[in-house]
């Protein structure tokens, strides 16, 4: 199956029955490699009430290489860089962990669960990770403030 065909199939799957709290659309109808994702901040997390824009970019050799997913909305989180890139550190997308059988749906689910359960030991934003480990109430308050401000 070609990358285009596989991507088209997965796109149809997530647009017809998207995971709870996630909307997916193409950035540009003529390019199936760039997906615009709007993710609701999960209930019970400091991100609740926020709407986060993400960009999912699928490589031309998908599914043999993992997609890249970035937060376009700024977020205070140990596993997402707090800059204009919003790069995310997530286990499933590491080249050594990625399998061609992995699906974009599972990438979205993993991203969502990372909002509920950060992984401070695999942090890209060390100040957020330190705060998460040492002062969780302060972390939650800061994350909630950023959510109100940016999301």
Automatic annotation (TrEMBL):
SUPFAM superfamilies: UBC-like. GO terms for molecular function: ATP binding; ubiquitin conjugating enzyme activity. This is E2 ubiquitin-conjugating enzyme. Keywords: ATP-binding, Nucleotide-binding, Transferase, Ubl conjugation pathway. Pfam families: UQ_con (PF00179). Residues 2-151 form the UBC core domain. Its EC number is 2.3.2.23. Gene3D superfamilies: Ubiquitin Conjugating Enzyme (3.10.110.10). InterPro entries: Ub_conjugating_enzyme, UBC, UBQ-conjugating_enzyme/RWD. It comes from Hyaloscypha bicolor E.
